[in-house]
Every structure is written in C-alpha cells, then in structure tokens.
Write a structure and sequence with these properties.
GO terms for molecular function: transferase activity. With 613 residues, the chain is an alpha/beta fold. The chain is 45% helix and 11% strand.
C-alpha cells in the first residue's frame, strides 16, 4: 500500500512513545532514587528528555523516510516490509541496550556510553563483571518492552494500515521528501548554531535527575562518534597558562622527606593493590568494624594515611595512577593506548634501574582492559597471571582465588633475587564476589556478598603476612597496601560522592621504623609513587603529578574523576563538578571558589597532557 501524507509523522510518534516508556522503565527500575525526586522534577525530566528523544528518533527515521521517498519514484517498491523489519530489529537491539543500561547505572552511576568498548578484547572478563546482574529480570524487561512495542507497531503503526488519501501523487512525493528534509531539525535539536548535546536535559543539582532525562541510545551514539577522537580538550575552563600555573602551585616539588620512616636502606618492596577496597569497610578508617581485622592490625603496626582517595573508579585507571603517578581521564583511559603508556614513568622501571628484580602477580587475565601492554612497557622481569595457576583454583568468572595467589607469591619470593620490587593485585572482591570460604556476614544481596568478599581477601592477606613475617627477607621488606579504587557499595553512593573514592593507603613491614602512626594529609593515588620514592632516596622527578605526602610542604589536596566530572578534596571539604551541565554538584560550606578553580585547572591541564602524549 502506498504511503499516507501523515504516515511519516505517525512513525516518528511511535519512536518518541517508545523512548518515553523506556525512560519510565529506567525510573521505575531505580525507584529508590526516583522516590527522592519531587513531582515537578519528574515532570521536568520527561519534558526535557523529549529533546534528545526527538533527536534520536530523527536518526532512526532516516531510513524509513528515505524508503517512502523512493517509493514515490518507484511505486512498486515493497517498502512496507522493509520498514516493518527494520523497526523490529531496532526495537530488539535498543531494548537489549536499555536492559544493559539499567544494571550498568546501578554499578557505575552513569548511562551506557563507549566505556564497555575498552573491554571487548576480553569478553570473558566482561561477562564476569556482569555476573552479579539479575539476568532473568533483565531478560524479562527486554522481551516485554521489545515484544510490546512490536505488537503495538504491527497492529497500530504498521505502514500497511495507513489508507491512501485522495491526493495527487506529486503532492505525496513532495511531502515525503519534505518530511525527510525536516528531520535535520530534531536531529540537531533546532536551528540554533550549536547542535544539541546532553546538557539540554540537565536542570538539577541531583545528578540522577539529569541522567534520567538522557536518551540512552543518543548518549551511546554520541560517545561512539567521539570515541578515540581525543585531539581536542573538552575541559577548557581557563587559559592554558593559567591552568598550568595553578597545577604547579599545587604540586610544587618537595625535596625534603621530613623524616625517614625506614630502618634499612634499599629494602624489598611488596606493593599490594587491593581490589575495590572501600574505606567504608575499613574499621581503622571509621568504616564498619570486623570486615578487615588483619588490614586494621597492619595499619596499627605501620603508617596509615587516613584521608586518602582513589583517582578514578576503574581498576585499569587506578593501576596507572598508582604505578605511574599519572592522573585519570574521565570518559577514556590512557591504558587503552600503548603508544601513550610507553611515555609514562613506572615504578618498576625505577626499581629496575636501581638493581631490583621486578615481578607482577595477578590471579586474573592480564589482557583485560589492555593491562598487559602497560605492564610490558613497565619492563617487569616476570608477569604472572591466571595461566600460571591450576584451573581448579579459579572462581567461576575471574581466575585464581586470592589465597592461592598469595601462596604462589610467598613461594616465589623465597627464591627471588634481592632486593625485589613485587606488585600483587588481588581480585576476589570484584563482582560477582565469589569466595571459597563460608560467608562471615549474613545476607544475599550484593552489599552482603561484597562485604564477605572483602572479608575473605583480608583473611587471605592476613595469612600471607603472618607467613611472610617468618621469612628471612621480612626484616628488610617494606609493604605498601593500597586499593585500586573504592566502590558505591555499601550505601549505593552516587558516582560523584567522595565516600565512593575514599580508600586505604598503608605502609608497613619489617623495614619500617615508625609504628602506629596516622597521617591525616589529604592525598590521592598519584602521590603514592613520589611518596615511596622520596623515602627510598630514588629518582622521583618523572612522577610530577603527585606529592610526597610525608613532607610538611605537601599541599593537602585530592583530585578524582567520574564520568565527565571531577571532585576536589581539601581539609576545607569537597567540591564536585559536572562538565556536561557545567555546574557544581556538591560543595561543602567551607569550600572556596579557589578550590573549584584548582580542580578545573587540574582537570584541564592533565587532560591536555594526556592528549599530547
């Protein structure tokens, strides 16, 4: 059947309706967050969200509108079936993405974008990250939404159900082409000079309200189009010279170490990175008691930095911040580009130059998130991953359990050339939180599983340290304990909150001369490497993005990033900034405008450096 002059707007309406319902599903799925919104907020979310809904609907409508225009020239063309099956296919794909987005937001705190592309080369590890998701519920959601709208289309919106009015064919052809041409208006968001972007739906100080207004596939498409296009700095807050000056003021070089906290020279260094160790579970940091008794004991035996933050919220980002002292990027990561990581300093390189043997131990897959290329650039003498462990020692998703990993490390270190620098990266406290011992704490929700996984890793760490203390090399060994990042659980922290980023940083071991000391200086992961190298008397100049946290000249300052935003912490409090909406999300009462400017300068200048790498 030939097209009606109203069919194209009718088809456009179908997709707008789909996205309105999809937004409703998103808000119901995250009902605890939605309940905190006012009725006015919810109405605004839907009204502002229509702008991006119209835009992505325009993209979806190009092929059907073009097919109808062709049908004006070729009346025998069977465009009805083409449009129908195109629509069915897009419904299935978008509903699947919608379901993935529902659970992704629960863990990451932002809508689906290009981030998962960084993990395509390791699908097994991607599946492991998703293992904690309620797959049955998400499958039902996918089928319900796609199936419901397929039926709605077939019986209400199908091309074959539109009757042809008594209008000359040339007029129908002209209208069809006109409708096609007019798609450019909703596609770019109107006739204004700057095309539509995510900021059109931002209206609230509550990030969830802004995120709920986003059109998920539009957000994904936008991210994919700019993925790997990092030639321009989107974080231009001030003149480059002004940003550089503010960063240099923050990170003025410290040449003194205040005091020596080591009892020996050239000690062995055990650098232990703890997966997802949030301060919310660390009793010695004011978190829940009883979850990490061994880590708490180690904090009492050594030096604990009590106001310490991760620089980002992903493992591969935290690794670069810790081992290279390099700032984290928001919507991308330097680790995915080997030609850039080749130019980064690494602790392993420094130790190798000082005559140390170097090794890296991880129970999982080093190819995950391009980590292996980064470590190879670091020149480690030995890389040990899951392939070095028997399959029976694996959990179902990631690799060898933490206690198995620690046993292998202990065995190897007894034969390692001294002095050694050995990095150990745990994994059992990563989703889906599988552990080989009986749970310590009750509950079956994700928070309870996470709590028990942290307890298990602490148990494995305690066993390892107890046995290590009995080895002849212990008296000459410095142990660095630090997390790769924090976690939204427990408490389901929003992705910008400082509580999500606060983590432990502890120095302990037989080589330490100072015991039972707390350092309250505010700092972040980029300062671990320079702090360590200052104490060891090793070259630290390349690690220019951090500070020596044991120096009285250190400016108490922590900087972290979340998806297209940053947080800045000082003793005065916290300020967080959303780059999309170009507005402050959170600002403590005593925080000055100068602190925000420092944060903007650090965001701008560090990303500029990333581009130039």
């Amino acid at each position: 059947m030939k097209p009606n002059l109203l069919y194209q707007p009718f088809y456009f309406l179908f997709w707008v309706l789909y996205f309105v319902v999809a937004r409703g599903v998103f808000m119901v799925y995250h009902l605890p967050r939605t309940e905190k919104l006012s009725g006015s907020d919810i109405l605004t979310i839907f009204l502002k969200g229509l702008q991006l809904d119209f835009s992505f609907t325009a993209y979806l409508s190009v092929i059907p509108f073009l097919a109808i225009s062709v049908a004006m020239v070729l009346p025998k063309a069977k465009v009805g079936k083409l449009i129908r099956y195109y629509t069915y296919g897009m419904l299935a794909l978008l509903s699947l993405l919608l379901s993935a987005d529902l659970e992704l937001y629960s863990f990451w705190g932002y809508r689906l974008d290009a981030t998962p592309l960084q993990y395509l080369s390791t699908p097994t590890e991607m599946a492991a990250s998703a293992a904690a998701a309620p797959l049955f519920l998400l499958t039902i959601v996918t089928i319900a939404i796609s199936g419901g709208f397929i039926l709605l289309y077939r019986f209400v919106f199908d091309y074959s159900r539109i009757a042809l009015p008594a209008i000359p064919k040339f007029l129908l052809a002209g209208l069809a082409v006109l409708y096609l041409a007019l798609l450019v208006l909703p596609l770019r968001g109107g006739v204004q000079q700057i095309p539509i972007n995510q900021s059109v739906v931002y209206f609230s100080d509550n990030p969830y309200a802004n995120h709920a207004g986003l059109n998920m596939p539009w957000n994904l498409m936008h991210a994919l189009l700019k993925y790997n296009k990092e030639s321009n700095n989107p974080y231009q807050y001030m003149a480059t010279e002004a940003a550089e000056a503010k960063v240099q003021e923050l990170l003025a070089a410290q040449t003194d170490t205040v005091r020596t906290v080591l009892a020996v020279q050239n000690p062995n260094v055990l650098f232990i990175i703890l997966e997802s160790y949030t301060a919310k579970f660390i009793g010695s940091l004011g978190g829940e008691q009883g979850v990490t008794p061994h880590l708490d004991a180690l904090a009492q035996e050594g030096i604990s930095f009590t106001n310490f933050y991760s620089s980002g919220d992903r493992s591969e980002k935290g690794m670069v911040a810790l081992l290279s002292g390099y700032p984290v990027q928001t919507v991308t990561s330097i680790i995915k580009t080997p030609k850039k990581t080749e130019k980064l300093p690494q602790l392993s390189k420094v130790f190798e130059q000082q005559g140390y043997s170097t090794s890296f131990y991880y129970g999982g897959e080093l190819e995950f998130a391009n980590i292996k290329s980064y470590l190879l650039n670091g020149g480690y003498d030995k890389l040990i991953d899951k392939h070095a462990f028997p399959a029976e020692s694996y959990n179902s998703k990631w690799g060898a359990h933490d206690h198995v990993l620690f046993e292998r490390v202990l065995q190897d270190l007894n034969h390692e050339k001294k002095p050694f620098f050995s990095t150990i990266y745990t994994l059992s406290s990563h989703e889906p939180f599988e552990i080989p011992i009986e749970p310590k704490f009750p509950g079956s929700d994700n928070a309870a599983k996470f709590r028990n996984s942290v307890y298990y890793t602490d148990w494995a760490l305690g066993r390892f340290i107890e046995k290590a203390k009995q080895q002849p090399w212990w008296a000459n060994t410095l142990v660095v304990l630090v997390a790769d990042h924090g976690h939204p659980l427990p408490g389901d922290d929003a992705n910008y909150l400082p509580s999500k980023f606060r983590i432990p940083f502890i120095l302990t071991g037989g080589a330490l001369s100072v015991k039972g000391t707390e350092i309250a200086t505010v700092g972040d992961q980029t300062s671990v490497a320079p702090t360590l190298l200052h104490q060891l008397g090793m070259p630290y100049e390349e690690f220019k993005w951090g500070q020596n946290l044991l120096s009285p000249k250190a400016k108490p300052f922590a900087f972290y990033v979340f998806n297209d935003g940053f947080g800045c912490v000082t003793p005065d409090g916290v300020v967080t900034f959303d780059n999309v909406g170009r507005k402050i999300i959170l600002k403590d009462e005593n925080v000055t405008d100068q602190q925000l400017e420092y944060g903007k300068a650090f965001m701008q200048y560090s990303f500029e450096d990333f581009i130039r790498k």
